[in-house]
């Protein structure tokens, strides 16, 4: 097995070990507590359909892809996620609803109401101007909306040597209205002279057990779609983490994962090339040779 075949797991586990051994122990916003490292990097070769989807636990990669497609659609309401059986964002609107109403509604009931009642979803299911809004409809001071994704695709096609091919989620003026400020916040792209697309994601805050595996998957899938749309080959994905942390209630899960041996990485195929970046559907993605260790359950810190 060549090193490239286990590169994602190897880098993931090395970082996990480093957080456990050297991470600064501190109380975080959620009150759960973390061990935290500042400043980390990982690099992934995405050529030959390689994709950084972990094998040392089963990653719900389709959930991560659906989340990325939801960002791209400009969506900010969890209704569109729940309709696709994606529940990873429910906790935040649910907490807000419970705080506001004092009702002890359970998650399943809340999700059923979000799906069944459009008015309820509009009032309680929206996360505010989060990723999708900023990526596709960043509001300028003159009232004009900026589609950052369309601009990236356009630049990849017409100005591949540009050093300005990026989009940003950190809209300072709108942070207050967001359920959570963006974690994966800047994506920059770089085209080599032989037509390969490199990408870099800066993530200011990374929940290494639950968030990082999703964020690596999402960033890789996005790079693949952009490459396809611009007629480029997938190159290298660089991930940079700011505060990379392990929640203190994830220590047992981390130990269990560290004890597992990485398996050969799967391959991701895009089955169709839609006319635009807006045309992708979950059915367009196929993962071959994915034979992971079992999933590892963990509580998400809200
Ligand atoms: N503390 C925290 N960690 C995060 O990773 C995170 C947030 N908050 N807030 C916003 C989003 C939501 N994200 C999440 C939330 C939950 C899971 C999660 O529970 N994942 C499980 C099950 C996934 C499933 O199949 O539904 C996992 O095992 O990966 C993952 C990412 C990423 N982000
Ligand atoms: O895509 C995501 C979204 C969120 N996270 C994690 C990182 C932190 O643990 C929390 C956010 O809390 P902050 O106090 O705003 O940093 O969510 C992630 O890893 N990936």
From TrEMBL:
<feature type="binding site" description="in other chain">
    <location>
        <begin position="245"/>
        <end position="247"/>
    </location>
    <ligand>
        <name>dUMP</name>
    </ligand>
</feature>
<comment type="pathway">
    <text>Pyrimidine metabolism; dTTP biosynthesis.</text>
</comment>
<dbReference type="GO" id="GO:0032259">
    <property type="term" value="P:methylation"/>
</dbReference>
<feature type="binding site">
    <location>
        <begin position="163"/>
        <end position="164"/>
    </location>
    <ligand>
        <name>dUMP</name>
    </ligand>
</feature>
<keyword id="KW-0489">Methyltransferase</keyword>
<dbReference type="Pfam" id="PF00303">
    <property type="entry name" value="Thymidylat_synt"/>
</dbReference>
<keyword id="KW-0963">Cytoplasm</keyword>
<feature type="binding site" description="in other chain">
    <location>
        <position position="215"/>
    </location>
    <ligand>
        <name>dUMP</name>
    </ligand>
</feature>
<feature type="binding site">
    <location>
        <position position="207"/>
    </location>
    <ligand>
        <name>(6R)-5,10-methylene-5,6,7,8-tetrahydrofolate</name>
    </ligand>
</feature>
<comment type="subunit">
    <text>Homodimer.</text>
</comment>
<keyword id="KW-0808">Transferase</keyword>
<dbReference type="InterPro" id="IPR000398">
    <property type="entry name" value="Thymidylate_synthase"/>
</dbReference>
<feature type="binding site" description="in other chain">
    <location>
        <begin position="204"/>
        <end position="207"/>
    </location>
    <ligand>
        <name>dUMP</name>
    </ligand>
</feature>
<dbReference type="InterPro" id="IPR020940">
    <property type="entry name" value="Thymidylate_synthase_AS"/>
</dbReference>
<dbReference type="InterPro" id="IPR036926">
    <property type="entry name" value="Thymidate_synth/dCMP_Mease_sf"/>
</dbReference>
<feature type="binding site">
    <location>
        <position position="301"/>
    </location>
    <ligand>
        <name>(6R)-5,10-methylene-5,6,7,8-tetrahydrofolate</name>
    </ligand>
</feature>
<keyword id="KW-0545">Nucleotide biosynthesis</keyword>
<feature type="binding site" description="in other chain">
    <location>
        <position position="29"/>
    </location>
    <ligand>
        <name>dUMP</name>
    </ligand>
</feature>
<dbReference type="InterPro" id="IPR045097">
    <property type="entry name" value="Thymidate_synth/dCMP_Mease"/>
</dbReference>
<dbReference type="InterPro" id="IPR023451">
    <property type="entry name" value="Thymidate_synth/dCMP_Mease_dom"/>
</dbReference>
<dbReference type="GO" id="GO:0004799">
    <property type="term" value="F:thymidylate synthase activity"/>
</dbReference>
<comment type="similarity">
    <text>Belongs to the thymidylate synthase family. Bacterial-type ThyA subfamily.</text>
</comment>
<feature type="active site">
    <location>
        <position position="183"/>
    </location>
</feature>
<feature type="domain" description="Thymidylate synthase/dCMP hydroxymethylase">
    <location>
        <begin position="11"/>
        <end position="302"/>
    </location>
</feature>
<protein>
    <recommendedName>
        <fullName>Thymidylate synthase</fullName>
        <ecNumber>2.1.1.45</ecNumber>
    </recommendedName>
</protein>
<feature type="active site" description="Nucleophile">
    <location>
        <position position="183"/>
    </location>
</feature>
<comment type="function">
    <text>Catalyzes the reductive methylation of 2'-deoxyuridine-5'-monophosphate (dUMP) to 2'-deoxythymidine-5'-monophosphate (dTMP) while utilizing 5,10-methylenetetrahydrofolate (mTHF) as the methyl donor and reductant in the reaction, yielding dihydrofolate (DHF) as a by-product. This enzymatic reaction provides an intracellular de novo source of dTMP, an essential precursor for DNA biosynthesis.</text>
</comment>
């Amino acid at each position: 097995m060549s090193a490239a075949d286990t590169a994602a797991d190897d880098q993931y586990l090395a970082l996990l070990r480093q957080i456990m051994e050297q991470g600064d122990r501190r109380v975080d916003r959620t009150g759960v507590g973390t061990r935290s490292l500042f400043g980390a990097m990982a690099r992934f070769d995405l050529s030959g359909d390689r994709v950084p989807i972990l094998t040392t636990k089963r990653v719900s990669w389709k959930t991560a892809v659906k989340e990325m497609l939801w960002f791209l659609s400009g969506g900010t309401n969890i209704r569109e996620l729940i309709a696709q059986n994606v529940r990873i964002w429910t906790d935040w609107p649910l907490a807000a609803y419970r705080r506001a109403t004092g009702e002890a509604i359970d998650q399943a009931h809340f999700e059923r109401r979000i799906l069944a009642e459009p008015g309820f979803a509009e009032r309680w299911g929206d996360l505010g101007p989060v990723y999708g809004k900023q990526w596709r409809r960043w509001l300028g001071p003159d009232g004009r909306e900026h589609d950052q994704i369309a601009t990236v695709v356009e630049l990849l096609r017409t100005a591949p040597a540009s050093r300005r091919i990026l989009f940003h989620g950190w809209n300072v003026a709108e942070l207050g209205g967001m359920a959570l400020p963006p974690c994966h916040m800047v994506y920059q792209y770089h085209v080599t002279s032989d037509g390969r697309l490199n990408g870099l994601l800066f993530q200011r805050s990374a929940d290494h057990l639950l968030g990082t595996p999703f964020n690596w998957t999402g960033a890789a899938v996005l790079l693949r779609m952009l490459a396809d749309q611009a007629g480029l080959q997938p190159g290298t994905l660089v991930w940079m983490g700011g505060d990379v942390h392990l929640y203190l209630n994830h220590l047992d899960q981390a130990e269990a994962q560290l004890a597992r041996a990485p398996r050969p990485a799967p391959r991701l195929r895009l089955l169709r090339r839609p006319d635009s970046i807006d045309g992708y559907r979950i059915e367009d993605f196929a993962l071959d040779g994915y034979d992971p260790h079992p999933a590892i359950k963990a509580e998400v810190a809200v």
